[in-house]
Amino acid sequence: MKFSLRQIEIFAAIAREQNVSRAAEQLCLSQSAASNALVELERQFDCPLFDRIGKSLHLNASGRALLPMAEQLLDQAREIESCLGGGILVPLTVGATLTIGNYLGTLVIAEYMQQHPEAPVSLQVANTQTIVERLLRFDCDIGLIEGEVSHPDLLVEPWLEDELVVFCGPAHPLAAAGTADVATLAGQSWILREQGSGTRRQFDRGVAPMLGRYTLRLELEHTEAIKRAVESNLGIGCLSRLALREAFRRGSLVEIRTPELDLSRYFYRVRHARRHESRAVQTFCAVCDRICGEARRTADLVLPFIP
Predict the structure, then answer these.
(1) Partners of 96 in the beta sheet?
(2) Dihedral Cα 151, 156, 161, 165, nearest 10 deg
(3) Packing angle between helix 61-84 and helix 5-17, nearest 10 degrees?
């Protein structure tokens, strides 16, 4: 075999980082050692893998074709290493969107860590667009997202049915009515998630066209910030019922029923189609299923109290 596993590891790190220095630091190598390994790999096969523009590296067509195979090979090598080392699960990086990460993902991670305390695991929380980008760059092993995504390199599995809920503060005029038609909703000031989030994407597709012109008063990146702003009577919001269940129970926020709107959606489990599905990923998915039990909807989940 003309190449070594170390060369493939260095290539993959440089491809992910698009920078030799950062890749070398990640692999505990000197910059010259990483650069020489890449140059030697390309020389051996007379096959450049990057376009070099000044000091910048950009994957070319050959590099883009190689990267998924390289990542799969490295995943399988880690599995072999794990098996030889006594069956310890390989490190796992989970990407979760904000609603899932804050209200459900942490519970799954905690259960996974309790069952496999020796297995390294990390949770990255961001919006749907960011998690998808990380999956495509092989920075995450599995993603838990709340926005629909269609990409030929991703495997998307429906996980749980969820729904968005329109809500207001207890002092808001709509709190007493409890129900609002589209015309009434169109006249309100809205506090919404940022562009790129799954929640905002569904609002823009399923709610905004029904409202026509509406007032966007605030655009915030975090569900808790939106809840606090709505509690302060700055406007009305639209978030996952999962994020609102305890606030509704306490009475700090009030649901506004919207019979004219279909706010149902799904949470999804996503992974790269060309990446080896490690035993750690399989184990994590099994923990997800155990946490959910027989529930198929987030409204039916039996979860501990979330203040």
Answers:
(1) 125, 144
(2) -30
(3) 120
